[in-house]
Specification:
TIM Barrel, 703 residues, alpha/beta, 29% helix, Rossmann fold, 9-stranded mixed sheet
């Protein structure tokens, strides 16, 4: 029986554990006579779902003239019938915003021409471009509601609950990203209600502060009423009051994102579309901006992320190098922390540029690394291209995207990579109920990941720097060690049986601090670095963790030499001091020192039934001595080894399920051949000697 569902672990398709394997297939671009062949090719490559935008600009070319089915490129129902005939599910993405290299990002040209006030605006009132609309503008909502209703009429008979192939609906696309990329946060005055007693922003401030005197105390201001408060785009990061103002607008803006996503979902429900709803975060770094949206959505709801890579050096997300792998690891773990089965709702199926080329081996390595690091579902963007609907595409006449199946229907050489990966997922469907084995937890707070614009610069160690240290220092070093990491929310469920690393900024919520205190008091073991929090995220004094270290005195201004000396390890280069301990806590043992001046940079102490190590240094993984140092610190906390590679350049990932079945992934994400011996500790010891790897090769070994 046809069915589709998911939970925090993974997906079930037609009653069986299966990866979600979707391919972006635009019915409005692909010639109708080629639909069936390209669908069959995708199914032969292991696919079970197709995804497509339903572009507003194509279906409502002039205001009030909504068209479905009058020409092949608008025949959504014909596309859905054929997908069902071939045996494929369908994920529909009706926008309103879509991008997809469509004019106006998929919005009809008449919308901006007739109603320019719907555009998102910067704080000076300058409109953005490229379809960057103000999501909650009343005119946009009025016009989009009409389109959504017409879309629902077309789609309702084809929903899975009605026996059709449509298994999921996506609201909008890459929320927040389209604002940040083409402007800033949105400051459209009509949407946000500046200066209006019942405006959205004044209401938000009143709900938070209740009384204008409380706001004035927080802002060091003298406003007579909430409607007089205007946002500030950039903080004076030496002023807590200024940071509060900017932080408040960021949090308010994220609340509008949640409101908008929930509103679009409610429209779909009102119109009788009752399947799961999803949305895609624009990249791994933006996942941290969506907990509010996830919390606001009725279930079932799926948040995925876009895991693009390119060989273009101008992109921060690069080819599938270790840097890319760390982004994927972080993305999968943060999605899981929100209760989601990690899924890439856009994973590269090609590239918008011809040079440098994406080779089949690179693409397969990218896919396998995503799977190894936690991914439970994929949507390839794009699986196939074709001619743009006349005068609607920014890529001129053709939308090829170097896809697996070219615009003209010929097979790209990457199609074989798609097929190889699809067959692997079919044979490893058991991993839907499996989990990645991790020896150590790495704790984070959402605010740490998203506070760069309102970090208080006067603090010893800023939140944004802590976030970068988590990825480039701690996670990278752990991936080069025998202790596999898992990112966990400090306010979520902490596993008492696994030690916890906390890359801590100087700000941390009281809730997280209390959770950490309780964790250690009950027998947990933790490594905290490089500082202890001094304030909460409202920049008010909050040093709750200090009670674990009575008598400790820290100094942030001492000089330091070029190396650190760690007990049992020796000298380690490349550690930057943030704090030294001038007076040890009662009963503590010093374990690390500045090699030149002798300042204490680390100590070990007990608290309750647990154990704590503090280390006052940061690093970006640059020498393997740093990995040895971190391994030694974790040994003091009795961390159990997971997998050790003799070649630390090669990342490993071990998976297991409740039955004890295990799969080991070994990733060579470099352009040269590599070899290694791998020692598996977790779940039963195994040694694999003299393993050889081609450039950009990921091996999977069933244990």
């Amino acid at each position: 029986m046809a069915s589709f569902s998911f939970d925090s672990l993974g997906f079930q398709v037609d009653g069986r554990d299966r990866y979600l394997v979707s391919g972006e297939f635009h019915y409005f671009r692909v010639p109708r006579q080629d639909w069936k062949r390209r669908m069959q090719l995708f199914k032969e490559a292991g696919g079970n779902c197709l995804a497509t935008y339903v572009p507003w600009l194509i279906h409502e070319p002039t205001e009030g003239d909504i068209r479905f089915g009058d020409v092949d490129n608008r025949d959504l129902q014909g596309f859905l019938r054929l997908a069902q005939e071939v045996g494929l599910k369908v994920l529909l993405r009706p926008g309103p915003y879509q991008y997809s290299e469509l004019d106006n990002a998929g919005l009809p040209g008449w919308l901006m021409e007739h109603y320019p006030q719907v555009m998102a605006m910067d704080i000076q009132g300058k409109p953005f471009h490229d379809g960057s609309v103000s999501y909650l503008h009343p005119i946009l909502l009025q016009k989009a509601r009409v389109y959504y209703r017409a879309f629902a009429e077309q789609v309702r008979p084809f929903m899975m609950e009605n026996g059709g192939p449509v298994c999921m609906l996506q609201v909008d696309n890459e929320l927040i990203g389209i604002h940040v990329w083409f402007g800033s946060l949105d400051y459209n005055p009509e949407t946000m209600g500046f200066g209006q007693a019942d405006g959205r922003y004044p209401r938000y401030l009143k709900e938070k502060y209740a009384d204008i005197s409380a706001l004035n105390a927080a802002y060091e201001s003298n406003y007579p009423a909430f409607e007089q408060v205007m946002p500030t785009a950039q903080a004076d990061r030496t002023s807590a009051a200024s940071c509060r103002r900017v932080r408040d607008y960021h949090e308010f803006y994220l609340s509008t994102i949640a409101e908008y996503a929930h509103l679009l979902a409610s429209w779909l429900r009102e119109d009788g579309l009752n399947g799961p709803i999803c949305h895609n975060s624009a990249n791994p770094n933006m996942n941290c901006l969506f907990p509010e949206t996830v919390a606001s959505m009725d279930k079932p709801f799926l948040l995925g992320s876009d895991h693009y890579y390119t060989l273009n050096p101008g992109w921060a997300q690069n080819n599938p190098t270790p840097q890319y792998a760390l982004r994927v690891l972080s993305s999968c773990d943060t999605l899981r922390a929100m209760g989601m089965p990690p899924v890439a709702l856009e994973l590269p199926g090609g590239s918008p540029s011809d040079t440098p080329p994406i080779l089949p081996g690179d693409l397969l390595a990218c896919y396998m690394a995503n799977l190894a690091l936690g991914l439970k579902g994929v949507n390839y963007y794009v699986y196939t291209g074709g001619p743009n609907f006349p005068d609607t595409g920014t890529t001129c006449d053709i939308y090829d995207y170097n896809a697996h199946v070219h615009a003209d229907g010929s097979l790209n050489e990457t199609y074989e990579s798609l097929k190889t990966f699809g067959k692997f997922m079919e044979s490893h469907a058991w991993m839907q109920r499996a989990h990645r084995v991790a020896s150590v937890q790495v704790g984070f707070e959402w605010n740490t990941m998203r506070c760069e614009d309102y970090d208080l610069k006067t603090l010893p160690f800023e939140g944004a720097r802590a976030d970068r240290f988590t990825e480039r220092g701690v996670l990278y070093t752990l991936m080069c060690s025998r202790y596999s990491p898992e990112l966990v929310s400090l306010t979520g469920d902490l596993d008492l049986n696994r030690p916890l690393i906390v890359p801590s900024p100087s700000a941390m919520s009281e809730a997280a601090q209390l959770k950490l205190l309780d964790f250690i008091r009950r027998g947990g073991k933790a490594l905290i670095l490089p500082v202890l929090p001094e304030v909460n995220w409202d920049y008010q004094s909050a040093n709750l963790l200090g009670q674990m270290m009575p008598g400790a005195v820290f100094n942030y201004d001492r000089k330091i030499g070029p190396a650190v000396r760690v007990d049992g390890v020796g000298r380690v280069f490349g550690i930057n001091r943030v704090a030294v301990c001038e007076h040890l806590p009662d009963g503590a043992q010093a374990i690390a020192w500045d090699d030149r001046y002798g300042h204490v940079l680390g100590f070990e102490t007990a608290y309750g039934a647990g154990k704590l190590i503090w280390f006052g240094g940061v690093w970006e993984m640059s020498t393997f001595d740093q990995a040895v140092m971190l391994e030694h610190l974790l040994e003091r906390l009795d961390v159990r080894p997971c997998v050790a590679s003799s070649n630390r350049n090669l990342f490993t990932s071990l998976w297991t399920d409740e039955s004890g079945r295990r799969e080991l992934f070994i990733m060579n994400l470099y352009s040269g051949a590599q070899s290694t011996t791998v020692h598996v500790y977790a779940g039963g010891e195994r040694i694999f000697e003299d393993l050889k790897f081609d450039p950009m090769e990921v091996k999977a070994i069933e244990l």
